[in-house]
Structure formats: structure tokens, C-alpha cells
């Protein structure tokens, strides 16, 4: 008891004078059943590890400047009672909570807020329990996708989860926002492949699928993170993958007929077999011929099968690409994750490493997204290339990601993720830059806005759809204090289309006082 009091006293003495979070810290220690353990997972600004813990998963360094608002306290719960105490005490003392799993939020909303706030970081909540026989896995929300893939592969090389491409993404945010990846044309989104969850609500109740009910279970599988409560764990459905898969990547410049290939790709990519996830990445490079700028288009895909199975399909459906055996590599599914993360020849254990490497370039970036329902014209494509050749776009990358497959067959309302039948492909706009150029960040952000405006006539309309997990505050945001249905509908309909109204109903029921909120959270009806 004496030891406990000393620990708590030391903790409190770290907090400065009469700052508001002193009451919060006291509340945490009183509220927690096991104060000795909670003290070891609390980081105030005076704690020597505070910055290391905060920065450990700041993935977009745009939000790691001295001007970025920082949390008063970071809590890294190791028990469910720590979450309960943190929610209770944050409500009592008027602090907002930002929940962080993998920290990939493109606008930093899991660790930045303009009001006094606490970060709940799930780094200690990341066990992965794989049951091969029943083809399920219970995964705590703080695990990264790499940990999930690795733990499944430890037990089976012919099972996986329909997760994202980048291994460092947190399972918590990924599934909360829908989640697409290499297998999404075969098996659907991450959210489509969740069969149960453990969740804590604003009153500290720990709920599973049965006790939360189907409406809330529906909402948390794609309605966007940070709106309803905290997901503690997901029960994932594991899906079959063949022992051998094939990957390929074929690059062509404008001088090598890239424009005609992209025009053709638009027509056929969404009709390619569900076993593929075709995409085409475009970026500016110096031409090898005369050193002038050109655009390089890189056509790539995973194929769930062998090279011998793939080549005749490509020869029949997309002969113009001229895919040859030399462009293709066979490997196991788990090795394809390394391949797409540009980690070939690394040991599989690298997937357990939470250190972030962005294969797409600089770690300061701005992202946008669009959905395309009709092929865009050659003139429109040329305009896009011309913008990709701008000086600000020297590290920009634009990726067309084919839809179709099972996405055409899952109803729009099956989960909050509504982008299903009728989409040819999604566009991912990424402009990124290096640290030394961060003083000029606005010029890059302005570039991405110009490109987005330019694309208006060629992409989905009413609403102009966007992917919730590619968070973009340019689409609109809640006021800091109050959220309004009308205001939130502006971006809410882009992310969720008509599912937005059901999300609002769920929110109104589970969190009527709107405790869990951020700039793009779902508002309750007042
Ligand atoms: P983070 O921890 O930042 O959380 C994101 C949001 O979810 C925040 O609002 C947060 O509060 C909330 N949240 C987090 N944990 C929660 C929990 N346990 N309970 C409730 N709310 C929670 N997407 C994709 O679908 N496919 C892809 O291949 C990629 N690739 C990709 C690459 C890179 C480099 C980046 C930076 C991002 C992607 N994404 C992506 C987007 C990614 O899926 C999206 O940013 C996810 O929300 C990230 O989840 P994290 O847990 O990592 O983020």
C-alpha cells in the first residue's frame, strides 16, 4: 500500500501545479482497480518517455511539429479496466479522448486535437490468437496488419486475412474505416470479414456482437474510427489463399504507349478475375532518352495462382500490356506482402516491426481519393499527366485501383463502406515531400487541391464519393465544440452515401452526448 501511494504521489508530482489533468490523474488512480499497473501506463508531459511514446506512431510527420497540439496525457492500457478508468475520468474532467491503434490516420486525428485531450494508445493491446481449425483469429485492435499476417502464416501458409497492403497499419483504424487490400476483389473489405468484436462504450461497458446488437456491430465495421467508442478486439474470418501466388509489375512511359494502355486498362481491369487486384501507379520521371520529364505508368497485380494460370488470362484479356513470364514472380502469400512493401529478401520477422517505412516516398504527405464510374477520356488523362509533371508533383503518385469482383456483388448497405457495384476503380492521390521542404508544405497541399478540382468532371458525382480511411479534412469537418448533422452530411455522404443516416442513428443511441468525437466523427441527432 505504501509503495502504491509512493508511485501515485510520484506520478502526480510529475504533473505541473494545478493543471486540469491533475484531477484527471487522481481520478485514474482512484478509479482503477489496480492502481499500481495503471501508473505504469500513464505518460504526462513531464515523463521522460512522453515524446517517444507519442512519436512512436506519428506516421505523417506533417503532424509532428512544435506547433502541433499535443495530448495532456497518453495512456497505453494493458487491461480493460484501464480503458474503463480513462473513459470515466476523461468524461468527468472534460477531456476528449483520441484513440490510436496504428497511427496511420492521414490527418493525424488519432493523436491531434484542438481541445485538451488524452491519447489512448493500444500499443499494449495487440495479441493475435489464430485458430486454424475454425479459420478464425481474435486480434486485439492495437496489432498491426504485419503481426496478423505473420501470426497466421506461422500456423498456415494457405490462410490469411483480407487486410491492407501496408503492414504497419493498425487493425483498429483499418477495419473501423472499411479496409481494402490485396484480397478485396476476392473476399471483400476487412469489415466484411469480421464476425465478432470486443468493444467498450462511453459508459465503460464491455460489449461483444451479441450484447452490442447488430446495428452497432454494423456501424463499427466501416463507419470510421473514433465515433462510437473503442474497439478492443476483432474476431476475423480467415480466408483461403493458394500455396503459390504470382505478382507482376510492368512499367511503360508515355513514349512507350502508356496512355493507350491506361485507357485500355480502364475498360477491362474491373472485369479481370476476382483473384487479381490490378492497379496502375503513375508518377513523373526523367525520360532516359533526352532527360526531359515523362510519366511512368506501372501496371501491377497479385494473382492467386501460378504464372502458368495467369499468362493465358492476361494474353486473352489484356494482350496490349505484353505481360511475359519474366515480369512475373511466384511466391507464397506472406512473401507477397513483403514484395508489395518493397521488403523483398527481408526476413518475415520484419512484419512484426512497428517502425514505419513509407514505400511511397516522403513521410510528410496529403492524400485524396475519388471513385470513377465511367472511363475517363484521353484528353482528361493528358491533363492529369500535365499536372503530374508540375514541379510540386516531383514525388507525387496517383494510383488507379480496380474495383469489380466481389465488390460488385456485396450490397452497398452490408456494412457502412458503400463503394460497391458500379465503380470501375478508385483513385488515390498522394503528394509527399521531405523534411527540409516542410516549410513549403502549403504549396504541395495546394497542388493536390488543384488536381482534385481538375478531376471533378471525370469522377463520381452527387455525392462525389471518397474513401473514409483516406481521411481528407478538405471535404469538411465538425466544429470543435458542436457537431451538426447538416454540416457532417457534407463529408458523411461522400464517405458513406445513404449509410450515413443509419450511422447517425447508431451514434444517437450509443453515445447521445457525443463524447467520442473528432473533426469527422458521426454526429448524434439532438
Ligand atoms: P489510427 O490509429 O491513426 O486510427 C485511425 C482512426 O481510427 C482515428 O480516427 C482513430 O481515433 C480511430 N481508431 C483507431 N483505433 C481505434 C479503435 N481501436 N477503436 C475505435 N477507433 C479507433 N487503407 C486501406 O484500406 N488499405 C491500404 O492498403 C492502406 N494503405 C495505407 C498506407 C499508408 C502508408 C497509410 C498511412 C495509410 C493507409 N491506409 C490504407 C489507410 C488506413 O487504413 C487508415 O489510415 C486507417 O484508419 C489506419 O488505421 P490505424 O489504426 O493505423 O490508424
UniProtKB/TrEMBL annotation:
SUPFAM superfamilies: FAD-binding/transporter-associated domain-like. The keyword Cytoplasm does not apply. Transmembrane segments: none annotated. Residues 1-17 form the signal peptide. One of its GO terms (molecular function) is oxidoreductase activity. Its cofactor is FAD. It holds the Pfam family FAD_binding_4. Keywords: Cell wall, Disulfide bond, FAD, Flavoprotein, Glycoprotein, Nucleotide-binding, Oxidoreductase, Secreted, Signal. It is found in: Secreted, Cell wall. Residues 67-241 form the FAD-binding PCMH-type domain. PANTHER family: OS08G0158400 PROTEIN (PTHR32448). Belongs to the oxygen-dependent FAD-linked oxidoreductase family. This is FAD-binding PCMH-type domain-containing protein. It comes from Gossypium laxum.
Amino acid at each position: 500500500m505504501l509503495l502504491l501511494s509512493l508511485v501515485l504521489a510520484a506520478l502526480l508530482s510529475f504533473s505541473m501545479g494545478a493543471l486540469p489533468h491533475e484531477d484527471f490523474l487522481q481520478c485514474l488512480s482512484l478509479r482503477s482497480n489496480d492502481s499500481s499497473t495503471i501508473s505504469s501506463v500513464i505518460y504526462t508531459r513531464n515523463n521522460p518517455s512522453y515524446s517517444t511514446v507519442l512519436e512512436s506512431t506519428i506516421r505523417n510527420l506533417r503532424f509532428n511539429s512544435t506547433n502541433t497540439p499535443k495530448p495532456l496525457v497518453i495512456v497505453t492500457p494493458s487491461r480493460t479496466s484501464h480503458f474503463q478508468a480513462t473513459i470515466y475520468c476523461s468524461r468527468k474532467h472534460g477531456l476528449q479522448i483520441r484513440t490510436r491503434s496504428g497511427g496511420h490516420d492521414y490527418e493525424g486525428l488519432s493523436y491531434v486535437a484542438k481541445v485538451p485531450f488524452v491519447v489512448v494508445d493500444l500499443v499494449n493491446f495487440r495479441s493475435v490468437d489464430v485458430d486454424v481449425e475454425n479459420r478464425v483469429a481474435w486480434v486485439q485492435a492495437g496489432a498491426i496488419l504485419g503481426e496478423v499476417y505473420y501470426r497466421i502464416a506461422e500456423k498456415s501458409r494457405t490462410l490469411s486475412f483480407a487486410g491492407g497492403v501496408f503492414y504497419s497499419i493498425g487493425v483498429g483504424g483499418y477495419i473501423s474505416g472499411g479496409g481494402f487490400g490485396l484480397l478485396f476483389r476476392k473476399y471483400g473489405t476487412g469489415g466484411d470479414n469480421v464476425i465478432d468484436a470486443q468493444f467498450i462504450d462511453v459508459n465503460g461497458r464491455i460489449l461483444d456482437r451479441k450484447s452490442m446488437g447488430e446495428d452497432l456491430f454494423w456501424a463499427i465495421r466501416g463507419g470510421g474510427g473514433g465515433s462510437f467508442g473503442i474497439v478492443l478486439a476483432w474476431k476475423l474470418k480467415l480466408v483461403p489463399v493458394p500455396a503459390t501466388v504470382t505478382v507482376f509489375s510492368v512499367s511503360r512511359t508515355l513514349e512507350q504507349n502508356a496512355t493507350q494502355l491506361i485507357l485500355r486498362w480502364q475498360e477491362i481491369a474491373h472485369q479481370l478475375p476476382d483473384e487479381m487486384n490490378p492497379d496502375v501507379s503513375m508518377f513523373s520521371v526523367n525520360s532516359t532518352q533526352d532527360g526531359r520529364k515523362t510519366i511512368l505508368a506501372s501496371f501491377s497485380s497479385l494473382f492467386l495462382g501460378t504464372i502458368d494460370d495467369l499468362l493465358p488470362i492476361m494474353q486473352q484479356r489484356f494482350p496490349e500490356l505484353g505481360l511475359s513470364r519474366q515480369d512475373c514472380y511466384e511466391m507464397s502469400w506472406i512473401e507477397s506482402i513483403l514484395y508489395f512493401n518493397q521488403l523483398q529478401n527481408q526476413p518475415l520477422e520484419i512484419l512484426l516491426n512497428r517502425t514505419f517505412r513509407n514505400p511511397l516516398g516522403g513521410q510528410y504527405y496529403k492524400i485524396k481519393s475519388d471513385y470513377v464510374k465511367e472511363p475517363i477520356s484521353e484528353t482528361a488523362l493528358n491533363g492529369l499527366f500535365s499536372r503530374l509533371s508540375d514541379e510540386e508533383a516531383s514525388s507525387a503518385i496517383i494510383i488507379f485501383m480496380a474495383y469489380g469482383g466481389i465488390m460488385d456483388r456485396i450490397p452497398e448497405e452490408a456494412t457502412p463502406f458503400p463503394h460497391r457495384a458500379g465503380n470501375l476503380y478508385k483513385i488515390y492521390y498522394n503528394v509527399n515531400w521531405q523534411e527540409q521542404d516542410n516549410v513549403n508544405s502549403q504549396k504541395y497541399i495546394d497542388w493536390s487541391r488543384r488536381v482534385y478540382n481538375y478531376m471533378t468532371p471525370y469522377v463520381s458525382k452527387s455525392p462525389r464519393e471518397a474513401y473514409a480511411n483516406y481521411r481528407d479534412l478538405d471535404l469538411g469537418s465538425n466544429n470543435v465544440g458542436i457537431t451538426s448533422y447538416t454540416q457532417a452530411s457534407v463529408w458523411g455522404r461522400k464517405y458513406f452515401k445513404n449509410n450515413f443516416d443509419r450511422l447517425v442513428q447508431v451514434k444517437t443511441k450509443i453515445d447521445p452526448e457525443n463524447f467520442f468525437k473528432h473533426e469527422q466523427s458521426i454526429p448524434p441527432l439532438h
